[in-house]
# Entry
Amino acid sequence: MAPMDIVTLELFDFTVSHAVLEVQKLLDAHQGKAVRIVLDDETHKRNVVKLLNKHGRTFVEHTKGSLVTIDVHPMKVLKKTGLLAPAPVAVLNTQAEQKPVPLPPAQPLPVLILGASIGGGDRTTGRRLLLEVLRRADKSIPWVGIASEGASLLREQDSLKVLQGLKSSGIQVRVSRECAMFNPDESAAFDVMEDSEWHGLLLKGKVTRL
# Structure
């Protein structure tokens, strides 16, 4: 691929949360390929570097004045997706019969909603699918968070009813502070979540992203 053909993402005039989301979308859409990210904000740069390291991507930075260009190298071997999770490791009991003791099941991760729908097709269908997934949410989920484009759920009666239903069932519903600022009335019934908290969880892979 010639340098002029590299897909380039410019992170100018983005909020911190939106910038993280756009970089994640870029990596998802061009898995393993060389991409270029251009920015002029130190906070954006730190978050981009963390996200690239999390994905195991190598890169080189070029700085010219306040402008920073990050050229992400292509991966030699694409990561395989959809692999089965490894079976729980059995811990041997050193007493008596030496029977294997299975590890307790892993606790479910919190759910972070960053989009207005699921899938890249028809938005209406994707929206219905998202709401149906939320209606069937396991009650053991620690919490459901709303951030970025997920704020659209706060502005429609059908989706608001689903969120209120989650809260009534015992699942905590949290709205990012940035979303709460722009939707104060709709967010009043839910808990506020600091944006820095979900940024960190997303970068560490400690949330289920929808």
Notes: The longest strand covers residues 59-64.
